[in-house]
Amino acid sequence: MELSELKIIDLKESILADNDADAEKLRKELADEKTVYINVMSSPGSGKTSTILRIVEQLKLSHKVGVLEADIDGDVDTKTMLSEGIPSIQLHTGGMCHLDADMSRQALREIGSQGLDIVILENVGNLVCPAEFDTGANINLVILSVPEGDDKPLKYPLMFSKADVVVVNKIDAMEAFDFNTERFKENVAKCTNAPVFFVSAATGEGIVKLGEWLHEQADALLA
Q1: What is the domain count for the chain?
Q2: Which residues of 119-132 are buried (b: 16+ CB within 10 A; e: fewer)?
């Protein structure tokens, strides 16, 4: 084959397309086994782990729930889940800043998703890479904390455009920061029509309403 003409191959586009197809396949596999997969994304320090613990408190009243903890390294969050009696396994990404569909499939197999109604993935903490790779999840939940500011949807529009639900954590610290809830909702609306919940994982405020919404979504998917 002669290479006399310039030819450019967009490897990233090809990789994402292949992953999207695999993610759709994974969703069908999970539907067959009656398992709901929730992908939780946020920046580091937003309170993902503490919020997930609160969510599990609500969901485990009527569903069998497990948690996948994804990190570049470390196992602190998994130990936290296990100490609370929540089935959990640690996923080390080997330096990668996201999970994709095949990584999810491997993790779901290891945790035994066929015996669980709901599996929650705590994705690697950042607002960029995880948004680009479809994990095969049914629900993408994006968490932002009050100290991060109400302008984050404008700075990371791709992440918020992928959200099926947006959660603002640390509302107990609202008075200490210049965070305008109405402005935040307006900024979110520029990216997605997903519902927004304001919670405090520290005090439990707002968690029941979030849990009820997730419960309804899970029941609809399981049906």
Answers
A1: 1
A2: bbbbbbbbbebbbb
CA-to-CA dists, residue 88 to 15, 34, 131, angstroms: 29, 19, 23
Cβ of 153: how many Cβ atoms within 10 Å? 24
Domain interval for residue 67: 13-222
Q: What CATH number does the domain containing 138 carry? A: 3.40.50.300
Please check whether residue 2 lies inside any domain of the structure: no
Instruction: Tell me whether residue 157 is in a domain.
Output: yes
What digits encode the pLDDT tens for the residues 103-155? Answer: 999 999 999 999 999 999 999 999 999 999 999 999 999 999 999 999 999 99
Count helices and strands in the chain by DSSP H and E runs:
9, 7
Distance CA 94, CA 97 (A): 9
Report residue 50 as tokens: 């503490």
| Residue 96 belongs to some domain of the structure | yes
